[in-house]
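Data deposition worksheet. Section B asks for the primary sequence of the deposited chain exactly as it was used as input, without tags or linkers unless they were present during the calculation. Section C holds the resulting structure in token form. Section D is free text for depositor observations; keep each observation to a single sentence. Incomplete worksheets are returned to the depositor.
Section A, Depositor: J.P.
Section B:
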Amino acid sequence: MNSCNFIGRLAQNPELVPVDSTHVARFTLAVEDYRRSRDGKKTKRVDYFDGDELAVFTTGRQYKWTEDDGKRNSKIKFRVNKFKLIGTRNYVESETSDEPKEETAG
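Section C:
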């Protein structure tokens, strides 16, 4: 199991999707991307969005599969264990659990 932490801006509103007997929120988080060019210089690419800034604490799992034509694919999915809305005076902090959690903004 891998632990991953991200801070970024929501690229769009989260989508609530039913899964078995519960719901899952799917969302896209815009983060900074660092790359090295062929000449060895480190460059930073940032996609700016006006969405809320969010800190996300996750575990990641890689899925691999081969299509009928032999093409190999992989995808990494992250399960959010905890998130925190940041950059605002009022924030909501949440941890995933099987029990409902009552939250209040202060």
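Section D:
The first strand starts at residue 2 and ends at 10.
The beta strands are 2-10, 15-19, 22-26, 29-30, 33-36, 42-45, 53-66, 72-86, 93-95.
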